[in-house]
Write a structure and sequence with these properties.
cell division; 16 helices; Rossmann fold; six-stranded mixed β-sheet; UDP-N-acetylmuramoyl-L-alanine:D-glutamate ligase
C-alpha cells in the first residue's frame, strides 16, 4: 500500500457500516487511525458493529448523535447511501471536516492503476467486459466498487502489476477529493437519483468527478453522442477517446458498415457479437476503448465479444426452452432500462414487468412496446403497467400477483421463436430483498416449467 502513513494517528469517524463502512473501519484501524464507528442500526441487531468493538474500536449505534463531533474528528468516511442532508453531515460540513467515501481511501492507498467506470446505465456490463478483455489478455484485473469487492479491500491487496476495474455510482464519486484514475469511462447521463442529489446539475457534477483530477497522461473514454457527457469531456484535461454508434469518431471508436472500429481499424463485425441489444454496442465500444488503452489485445477482445452472453440479471440469456428464449433483466429497475432491453430484440417479446410502486406512471415506456405481443404484470405496479399496455392495444395483457405465476402465464402465451423477457421497470422491494433475488426467482420459475 502507498501513502499508508497518511492516516497514522488521524481521528476518523466512519459513518454507516454495511460492507463499505465495515471494510473502511478495519483498514483505517490497521493504518493506525483512531477510528470511531457510527451506525443507525441498534447494537444488538448489528453483528458487524459488535465485531468492530471486539477489535477495540469505539462504536456508537442506534442514532447519529451530534456529540460525535464534539471531540476531534479529522475525517469522516461515510457510507455512500447516507445522504448529505443527514444532520450530522451538515454540522460536519459547517466545521470544515472533510467528508469522503471509501473510494477516496482506496485511491490513496492503491499501488495499482485504476480504470473507473460510471454512467446512468451500462456500468456493470461495461465493467465486466473490460475485466474479461484484460483477463484474457494476460493482465490481472481486480473488480471493485459497485460490483465485486469493496474498493478499499481490493486496493489494500493490489500490487503495481494489477489493474483495478472499478464501477462507481454518483453516490460514491460525490465523496471523492483527489481521486484520479488512469482511465475513466463516462457512458451516459440521464435523470436519476434526484431524490438523493436534489437537482440534475448536482447529479451531473457528481458524475463529472470521475475525471476532474485527471491529467494529460490519463485517459477519458467518453460517449461522444451524449451532449452532457461531451460537455464534461470538453473541460477535461485527460487525453480523450470518444465513442459513438451514430457518428464517425476518427480518433476513437465507432460503427461503420456493420463493423466496430478503433481509430479507423475494424475490430469485429457487429453480427459476430453475442451480447444482444443496440444499447450494448455503446457499452462494447467503451469497454474495448478502455481495454485497448490498458493493454488488451485485439484478438482477445474479439474472443470476449464472440462469447460473452451478458452480466447476470442484466439482459442475461438464461436458456432456450421449447424454442422459446428466456432473458433475465431483473436489474432493470427503471423505465429507461426496460426500454433499452425491449429495443434489443427484433423477435416477438412477451414482457414480464412489475414491482415496487414509486408513484410514477409508465407512459414513457409506450414507445418501446411496439414489438411486444404480450405483457404479464405482477406486484404493486401490476395494474398501472397493465393499463399502459392496454392503452396501446397490446395483443394480450395478463395481471397476476407473483412472479412465478407470471412465468407460467408467459410460457402459455408464447409460441416458438418468442422472447420471454423479465424486465420489471421497477425496484424489487415489494416482494424481494434485491433485484438479484428476483432474478434468481425468475430463473427458478423457468426451470420449474
Amino acid at each position: 500500500m502507498k501513502a499508508a502513513e497518511n492516516f497514522q494517528g488521524k481521528h476518523v469517524l466512519v459513518l454507516g457500516l454495511a460492507k463499505s463502512g465495515y471494510a473502511a473501519a478495519r483498514l483505517l484501524s490497521k493504518l493506525g487511525a483512531v477510528v470511531t464507528v457510527n451506525d443507525g442500526k441498534p447494537l444488538e441487531e448489528n453483528p458487524a458493529a459488535q465485531e468492530l468493538i471486539g477489535q477495540g474500536m469505539n462504536v456508537v449505534c442506534g442514532e447519529h448523535p451530534l456529540s460525535l463531533l464534539d471531540s476531534q474528528v479529522d475525517l469522516i468516511v461515510k457510507n455512500p447511501g447516507i445522504p448529505y442532508s443527514n444532520t450530522l453531515l451538515i454540522e460536519a460540513d459547517k466545521k470544515n471536516i472533510p467528508i469522503q467515501t471509501e473510494i477516496e481511501l482506496a485511491y490513496q492507498i492503491s499501488e495499482a492503476d485504476i480504470i473507473a467506470i460510471t454512467g446512468s446505465n451500462g456500468k456493470t456490463t461495461t465493467t465486466t467486459l473490460i475485466t474479461e478483455m484484460l483477463h484474457h489478455s494476460g493482465r490481472t484485473p481486480l473488480v471493485a466498487g459497485n460490483i465485486g469487492i469493496v474498493a478499499c479491500e481490493v486496493a489494500e491487496q493490489a500490487t503495481d502489476d494489477d489493474v483495478i476495474v472499478m464501477e462507481l455510482s454518483s453516490f460514491q464519486l460525490m465523496g471523492t477529493d483527489t481521486f484520479r484514475p488512469k482511465i475513466s469511462v463516462l457512458l451516459n447521463i440521464f435523470d436519476a437519483h434526484l431524490d438523493y442529489h436534489g437537482t440534475k446539475e448536482d447529479y451531473i457534477a457528481a458524475k463529472a468527478r470521475i475525471q476532474s483530477k485527471q491529467q494529460a497522461s490519463d485517459y477519458l473514454v467518453y460517449n461522444a453522442s451524449d451532449d452532457v457527457v461531451t460537455q464534461i469531456a470538453q473541460s477535461s484535461e485527460a487525453t480523450k477517446i470518444g465513442f459513438s454508434t451514430v457518428d464517425l469518431v476518427e480518433d476513437g471508436l465507432d460503427v461503420v458498415e456493420g463493423y466496430i472500429r478503433y481509430k479507423k481499424t475494424a475490430i469485429i463485425a457487429v453480427s459476430d457479437i453475442m451480447l444482444p441489444g443496440k444499447h450494448n454496442i455503446e457499452n462494447i465500444l467503451a469497454a474495448a476503448g478502455a481495454a485497448i488503452l490498458a493493454g488488451a489485445s485485439l484478438t482477445q477482445i474479439q474472443h470476449v465479444l464472440r462469447t460473452f452472453g451478458g452480466v447476470e440479471h442484466r439482459l442475461q440469456f438464461v436458456k432456450k426452452h421449447d424454442e422459446r428464449l428466456f432473458y433475465n433483466d431483473s436489474k432493470a429497475t427503471n423505465i429507461l432500462a426496460t426500454s433499452k432491453a425491449l429495443e434489443a430484440f427484433d423477435k416477438p417479446v412477451i414482457l414480464l414487468a412489475g414491482g415496487l410502486d414509486r408513484g410514477n406512471s409508465f407512459d414513457s415506456l409506450i414507445p418501446s412496446l411496439s414489438g411486444v405481443k404480450s405483457v404479464v404484470t405482477y406486484g404493486e405496479t401490476k395494474e398501472k403497467i397493465a393499463q399502459t399496455a392496454r392503452s396501446i392495444n397490446i395483443q394480450s395483457v395478463q395481471v397476476v400477483n407473483q412472479l412465478d405465476e407470471a412465468v407460467r402465464i408467459a410460457y402459455n402465451e408464447s409460441e416458438e421463436g418468442d422472447v420471454i423477457l423479465l424486465s420489471p421497470a421497477c425496484a424489487s422491494w415489494d416482494q424481494f430483498k434485491t433485484f438479484e433475488e428476483r432474478g434468481q426467482a425468475f430463473i427458478q420459475a423457468i426451470n420449474n416449467l
